[in-house]
Specification:
Length: 426
């Protein structure tokens, strides 16, 4: 089962969690106090560079329909769409640049280059997902209503096609994001408010329709006026650019939410949740991936997903420096800091989807201690006094040490070598 008591799982006392909140609040305050012209210049230059890339891509497509020009234009346009989606649209709509008071770069006015309405996304993502992160039954991003991403979700027959569904979702990811707010499942089950559903459907249809006209009618028609291009060449290039953006967005987002170590929670976790407990849930429920400057930028700085979940409205260009301090906090309280190479993290999400296409009876691990989900029950055989100061090393023992102890014991039991059960009390 998913985590039902985050304090017990984390091996932290109430005082620890209060102190954790104070330290994380201090990081937020430092960044807010230091925001300024450097940050404003960053987002303005990013927007200018993205628009230049988009214009370049469209000029290449207008210049000719030869294979080399076509691929160059489609790829350039795809990169421009990735930047607009990940580093600009996603982050602007989170309110990361609202402090600038620039009406053109504000969460309330930005409309991104996707079929989904920004208004809908701000609700399903900014409010629902970030408030109820990884809480089963409340955060629709846990599987998007299609994928089985944890053993806590009951297996259904269509889950056998988990990999197929994710491939389809990845290719058309913008449509998955756009349709999420419609709550189609509730409509079919008769649990949705009809009037509200009609409004959402009308708003969705308007935005999706405009996007389809722009990508597959207006721009192809415009470039077809060039003697070197055709309507079809631009239409197919736009479709490829959208798929490039969709595949990349899906990969980045899945790396932040579904690799090993990104925990899931039950509804009981949010009852009476303090600020410190909310911080803790964000840290435990997210995952990072290692990235250099280029990969950081192309991921919208969501390689720092842990930091983004802690501070969703702080500028994305500051997450790298925030990550250094957050990692220090994790080390101080002996909390895991889940990260790894991009391709490894992404491969783990596909491995999880492959395994969970099968019912639990065919899986080796249980829902209390599996790669994609854990609960406080995995520590049942640890003595209550495990957390605290290790008498041998003088270092704090918390969740990270507890997980290592249990995993080491389990490996030893499977292989017949290693620590015995009694060693868990050490």
């Amino acid at each position: 089962m998913a985590i039902t008591d985050v304090d017990e799982f984390a091996h932290l006392t109430d005082a620890d969690i209060e102190n954790l909140a104070v330290e994380l609040d201090a990081i937020r305050q430092d960044i807010e106090d230091s925001r300024g012209e450097r940050d404003a210049r960053y987002i303005r230059r990013t927007i200018a560079a993205q628009r230049a890339l988009e214009v370049s891509g469209r000029l290449m497509l207008a210049a000719g329909s030869r294979r080399s020009a076509w691929w160059a234009g489609a790829a350039t346009l795809g990169v421009a769409k990735i930047i607009e989606n990940m580093e600009i649209g996603h982050n602007v709509m989170h309110g990361q640049w609202d402090w600038m008071n620039d009406p053109e770069i504000h969460s309330s006015t930005w409309e991104w280059d996707m079929t989904g309405s920004s208004k809908h996304w701000r609700y399903t993502h900014n409010y629902v997902h970030h408030k109820y992160t990884n809480i089963l039954g409340m955060d629709d991003d846990v599987g998007y209503g299609v994928l089985r991403v944890t053993r806590d979700q009951r297996w259904k027959r269509f889950n056998i096609f988990n990999l197929v569904w994710n491939a389809i979702l990845a290719i058309g990811f913008e449509w998955g994001v756009a349709l999420q707010h419609l709550e189609i499942g509730k409509i079919f089950k008769g649990r949705a408010d009809r009037d509200a559903a009609k409004i959402r459907l009308r708003e969705f249809s308007g935005k999706a329709g405009r996007q389809l006209v722009k990508d597959y009618v207006a721009f192809p028609a415009l470039t077809s006026l060039s003697p070197g291009a055709t309507y079809k060449s631009t239409l197919t290039a736009n479709a490829v650019a959208n798929v490039i953006r969709n595949l990349w967005s899906n990969a980045v987002i899945f790396c932040g939410h579904f690799p090993d170590g990104a925990e899931k929670f039950t509804k009981t976790d949010m009852i009476g949740e303090t600020k410190g407990q909310w911080y803790l849930r964000q840290m435990l429920g997210s995952a990072n991936f290692d990235a250099g400057p280029a990969l950081q930028f192309m991921s919208g700085n969501l390689c720092h997903q842990i930091e983004h979940h802690l501070y969703p409205d702080l500028p994305s260009n500051r997450l790298a420096e925030i990550s250094v301090r957050v990692r220090e906090v994790c080390d101080k309280y002996d909390l895991p800091y889940t990260t790894g190479p991009f391709l490894v993290q992404y491969a783990k999400t596909w491995r999880t989807l492959a395994k969970l296409s099968l019912p639990n009876k065919y899986l080796r691990d249980n829902a209390d201690d599996a790669p994609e989900t854990r609960s406080e029950r995995m520590f049942a055989e640890l003595e209550p006094g495990f957390a605290g100061i290790d008498p041998a090393t003088g270092r704090r023992r918390g969740l990270k040490s507890a997980i290592a102890a249990v995993r080491g014991w389990r490996r030893g039991r499977r292989t017949g070598v290693g620590p015995a059960t009694d060693d868990l009390a050490a």
